[in-house]
Amino acid sequence: MDATVRTLADELAWATASLAEVGIDTARLDAELLMAHLRGGDRARLILDADVRADGDLRTRYLALVARRAGHEPIAYITAKQGFRHLELAVDPRVLIPRPETELLVEVGLELPAGARVVDVGTGSGAIALALKQERPDLAVTGLELSEAALALARHNAARLRLEVAFSASDLLDDGDYDAVLANLPYITDGEPLPPSVAAFEPARALYGGPDGLRVIRALCAQLADRPGVGAVALEIGATQGEAVAGFLTAAGFGAVEVRTDLAGLDRVVIGRRTR
Ligand SMILES: C[S@@+](CC[C@H](N)C(=O)[O-])C[C@H]1O[C@@H](n2cnc3c(N)ncnc32)[C@H](O)[C@@H]1O
After folding, report:
1. Best mutation site among 125, 205, 269 for ligand 1, i.e. most ligand atoms within 8 A of its Cβ?
2. Which of 18, 70, 149, 270 counts the highest number of beta carbons within 10 A?
3. What is the pLDDT of residue 30?
4. pLDDT recorded at residue 234
């Protein structure tokens, strides 16, 4: 082949080197994800098409995407999508990018009895609420969110996925009747250093929870003390917050409290159940 002709393999090698140079440790994966996104196929296709010529238009558009990633913008914002359980969610800087460890909260929701009324507080993109509704259509699922901007995206996700979840604006719980509460609220300590891809791009109100990281979770637990009808609650936490949040739930009247770990073995979810 003419030495001036650039193939997809050449483009991938160039992008990988460029991303590695700025300290991105998933450089090859990211280079492939961006190319697959541009071409509308999956990463496996790139292996089959390694010798395909990269035309000028593709190269220009690829350069622009790789430059964004080199500036540490998360892949999910560049491609405007993120997988979560069985769903592909639309995401953009209005919402936190749903994380794999948050799928644990959905798993707790799957244990609920048939027809339970469940609310996802701080729903963001709608990830927890929508995944739960998709896997358990019998549940009545609500998503509450402080940010109107995030709520608009959650509603967009529900419409495109054709999932019936009621989304409303609310500062923590509204006055609806719920049997169970699931929540991944902000829990990072103010000022804690975060990777540039998180700190510079994801919404601060989705991340930071005050001087001890527990301001929002504490407020939700205080609300739950006055909601005897809520029989079960599951809260995502930071790895060092298990004991504190277990204490909040005990104080709110949940007689059985359990801390579950994620795949990395870190405390990740605190579950409270009323014993009556
Ligand atoms: C860590 S993000 C989680 C988003 C989504 N649940 C997920 O797991 O991907 C926390 C979300 O809680 C929302 N939030 C923060 N404070 C809130 C409050 N007082 N009431 C309702 N939502 C709140 C933020 O706007 C943000 O969307």
Report:
1. 205
2. 270
3. 98
4. 98
**Same-domain pairing of 54 and 191:** no
Q: At CA 143, angle to CA 142 and CA 145, rounded to 5?
A: 145
Convert the pLDDT of each residue in 62-87 to its tens digit.
999 999 999 999 999 999 999 999 99
> Given ligand 1 and candidates 118, 120, 145, which is best to mutate, with the most ligand atoms within 8 Å of its CB?
145
In a domain, 146, yes or no: yes
Residues in the chain predicted with pLDDT less than 50, given as ranges, are 1
Residue 263 belongs to domain with CATH number: 3.40.50.150
Q: Looking at the structure, do residues 30 and 164 belong to the same domain, yes or no? A: no
Number of H helices, E strands in the chain: 12, 9
Whether 131 lines ligand 1, by a CB cut-off of 6 Å, is no
- Verdict on whether the full-model pTM lies above 0.90: yes
Upper half-sphere CA count for residue 151 (Cβ side, 13 Å) = 15
User: What atom of ligand 1 comes closest to residue 171's alpha carbon?
Assistant: 20
Instruction: Give phi and psi for 9, each to the nearest 5.
Output: -60, -40
Distance CA 214, CA 152 (A): 26
- Best mutation site among 91, 96, 99 for ligand 1 pocket (most ligand atoms within 8 Å of CB): 96
Amino acid at 246: A
Q: Is 119 in the pocket of ligand 1 (CB under 6 A)?
A: no
Spatial contact of 114 and 136, defined as CB atoms under 8 Å apart: no
Domain holding 55, by residue range, is: 8-71
| Domain presence at residue 3 | no
**What is the per-residue pLDDT for 3?**
54
CB of 231 shorter than 6 A to ligand 1: no
42 and 160, same domain (yes or no) = no
